[in-house]
UniProtKB/TrEMBL annotation:
PROSITE patterns: INSULINASE. Pfam families: Peptidase_M16, Peptidase_M16_C. Its cofactor is Zn(2+). Belongs to the peptidase M16 family. InterPro entries: Metalloenz_LuxS/M16 (IPR011249), MPP/UQCRC_Complex (IPR050361), Pept_M16_N (IPR011765), Pept_M16_Zn_BS (IPR001431), Peptidase_M16_C (IPR007863). This is Insulinase family protein. Keywords: Hydrolase, Metalloprotease, Protease, Signal. One of its GO terms (molecular function) is metal ion binding. Residues 188-370 form the Peptidase M16 C-terminal domain.
Amino acid sequence: MSRLLAAFALLPGALWAAEEAEVSTHTLDNGMEIVVIPDHRAPVVTHMVWYRVGAADEPPGKSGIAHYLEHLMFKGTDEIPEGQFSQIIAANGGRDNAFTSWDYTGYFQRIAADRLDLVMDMEADRMRDLVISEEVWRPERAVILEERKSRVDSNPGAILGEQRNAALYQNHPYGIPIIGWEHEIRELTREDALEFYARYYAPNNAILIVAGDVTLDEVVALAEEHYGPLEPSDDLPERVRPREPVQAAARRVVVEDPRVRQPYVLRNYLAPERDAGAQEDAAALTILAELLGGGITSVLSQSLELEQQIAVSSGAFYNGTALDSASFGVYVVPTAGVSLEEAEAAMDTAILGFLEDGPDLEHLARIKTQIAASEIYARDDQQGLARAFGTALTSGLTVEDVLAWPDVLAEVTADDITRVAREVFNETSSVTAELRIGEPEVTE
């Protein structure tokens, strides 16, 4: 059992004088990791179970199985009939949900602290005793197909995003959509789901995160009672994914669709992820995204929206919390009468100017102050804080990395930002995506 103290003081002069935050950890004998984040302001807890498995861990040809299983996890056990899990949570004044990404699958409940025993009992029950009956697996697969149709196939922007990812990751499964390819979803079976469940849904592949009005001792006692008796998986594979080759050519994908109302151009570059004990480049890229496209004072906004007035919107984005290679993106939405070619050229000119001149030091200081403040304000979001730890821990980072992140951000220099920008803005490792207004189909 370990206790880690973090002041979360981000910059000299300490912007925040609140109490130090204590994050405690423990590991059960069956391998289940526990993280406790105390917050005694209200008698409420957020209970999360994160599994180190996501869409990027799926067997070849089985895309969508991780997300499909997330749905099936609500279909009941011998103890809790189908449809009752969320109803029981709601009847006790709580709410629950689940989510799947490429690197993780998570389940959470937010409920009164005196109901923590109940939600642990329920979550432990479905960790190893899920029932996937013949009556539920086919209808739920149909639900997934309908979800894909409504969220992806009926949305030109989502189609473009899916094709962009597939082009950006030429060998890595991050190029496969989380929801899955339609033709592979249609072939998923009950046996596929049961095999995936038996292999990955086990205490030695899970992280329990509890934030709220609790202590470590209270959480460990309940976890020992409910999760402790569960047997670990003896079939848990090492998380080794296909690696990206050296990319040798820029790629471009174009979606033209008459349903498009606002065309735009977006470019993604392969970029390094946050690595355990080595977060410096990711921190510099985080600040680079803010400098280039984080708001009205950003480089792209000032140039494209205010000075040239050729864009209604522009921006940059980066999220390095990933087990494998991340990406850095820039985009521009042109004003009426401005072509995508003109908008893209102006975006590239602004980026080139930044690479030549480097960041403005006053602007950099403001951005670092804003980021520091946002890190502080995030501590008021109990569920968001728990999610930040869960995302990081299932993506190869440690509790120490999460606690150190504000300090790593604070230490980023202008030279660091210029260096990572020049490394990341490599045309041959980029995909440019265009969303265009297409001609209506002519029916005879």
